[in-house]
Amino acid sequence: MNLKDIRVTVIGAGIGGLAVAMLLRQRGAQVTVLEQAEEISEVGAGLQVTPNGVAVLRAMGLADDLAWCAQRARAVVLRHHAEGREVLRLDLDQYAHDLRYYFVHRADLIALLADAVRRAGAQVLLLQKVSSVVRGARPVVHLANGASCTADLVIGADGLHSRVRPALNPVSAPRFTGQVAWRATVPNVLDLPPEAQVFMGPGRHLVAYPLKDGSLVNLVAAQERKGWAEESWSLGDDPANLRRAFRQFGGAARTLLQQVEMVKLWGLFRHPVAQTWGGDGIALLGDAAHPTLPFMAQGANLALEDAFALADSLDRCGDIAAALRAYQDRRRARAVKVVEAANGNAWKYHLRAPLSWPAHQALRLAGTLAPGRMVRQFDWIYRHDETAP
After folding, report:
1. Residues 132-143: pLDDT tens digits?
2. 89: enclosing H helix or E strand
3. Residue 2, CA atoms < 13 Å, CB-side half-sphere
4. pLDDT digits (tens, 9 = 90+) for 5-57
5. In a 3-state reduction of DSSP, which class is residue 132?
6. Vertex 43 angle, CA 275 and 213, to 5°
């Protein structure tokens, strides 16, 4: 299929939407990105770009740009919540030296992608709020202002509350996990090294890692609770509520929490992976297809993988319908497996007495006897290269 003859409309200027827009432009497609905000920005804080995501950015020619605006991760360190003592160190430099893991501010990654998309010649239209999409040989995008537009292919990269997903799948209610998470960035007053620090406590955990030039620290604090919280990254909360929830945390964790002046809170919900990812001129990628809990740090990385797989499938197949079938066959099983891994990962950090002590001892022993094996246990995620021939 000659992509130069294809007109593509991408809904959403997040990481997945911008990535697929650039990848399709590189292959010659005519691409328009519709974004409902008044500017391309990111309300989140930090994220981890793991090697599987780096592989896609490398294929896009952006790996060096990422390295300039991010911290290369050297280790993941699991710690006891109260004293901060080390339980397990996963040394990435020693046991995954051939791979690249990065800590990056979402805003920096979005800016990097947005700049690349515009240089590639894609059209980016702001203040374009989509109300619905109608599938068909020429799918129609209806906007909230009453206008509409058509394309050969509409790509839904519009996240958790996708307006595109209902065109392909029945609407299903998400299920509250019984967990909430706070996000914040604070000054790096402790001069933390480029390592992910995971402070494990009863029914909650705190993750901290540096951003930008090391002057900021990204905090993600997850807590089990019965009370529901809104599923939104932009819901503000009182920092005192965060400190109260983590009052049992000491050492470095307490110092970092004391620095929080602004914080966002959101409820964590499980959504089913979409059964249908493409058809009748419509495709889904990223959270629109497979919303993912943050406990494997794979949301952005899966979106990057999706973007490459979709562009590559369109480039290889004879028509759009065949390409969308190939894309779903290529991606859905992996997304399901990663989502399930994230669903099952949080409890490991939330153990209560009397289980926490023997579990931490077992982790410490495993880290002593087989440190390489502990690092490589998730190679099936991190060593996956969607760009490989």
Report:
1. 999 998 999 999
2. strand 86-91
3. 2
4. 899 999 999 999 999 999 999 999 999 999 998 887 666 689 999 999 999 99
5. strand
6. 115
Q: How many CB atoms lie within 10 A of CB 43?
A: 12
Beta bridge partners, 153, equal 8
Beta bridge partners, 222, equal: 181, 205
DSSP notation for 158-225: --TT-SSGGGTS-----EEEEEEEEEEEEE-TT---SEEEEEEETTEEEEEEEETTTTEEEEEEEEE-
- Per DSSP, helices labelled H in 60-131 are 63-69, 92-95, 106-120
Q: Start-end ranges of CATH 3.30.9.30 in the chain?
A: 175-270+346-381
- CATH architecture type of domain 175-270+346-381: 2-Layer Sandwich (3.30)
What stretches of 249-370 show up as alpha helix (H) in DSSP? 251-258, 299-316, 320-343, 356-369
Q: Where in the chain is the domain with CATH 3.50.50.60?
A: 3-71+102-172+271-344
| Torsion-angle region of 214 (φ positive above 0: left; ψ -120 to 50: alpha; else: beta) | left
Return the active site residues. Answer: 209
**Does residue 52 sit in helix, strand or coil?**
helix
Cα distance between residue 192 and residue 208, in whole Å: 9
Burial (CB count within 10 angstroms: exposed 0-12, middle 13-18, buried 19+), residue 66: buried
With 0.90 as the threshold, say if the pTM is over it.
Answer: yes
Please tell me whether residue 10 adopts helix, strand or coil conformation: strand
CB 270 within 8 A of CB 293: yes
* Matching residue, tokens 């399901």: 336
Nearest 10 degrees: Cα torsion 159, 292, 305, 74:
120
| Closest to 100 (Cα-Cα) out of 49, 159, 138, 137 | 49
Domain 3-71+102-172+271-344 class, CATH top level: alpha beta
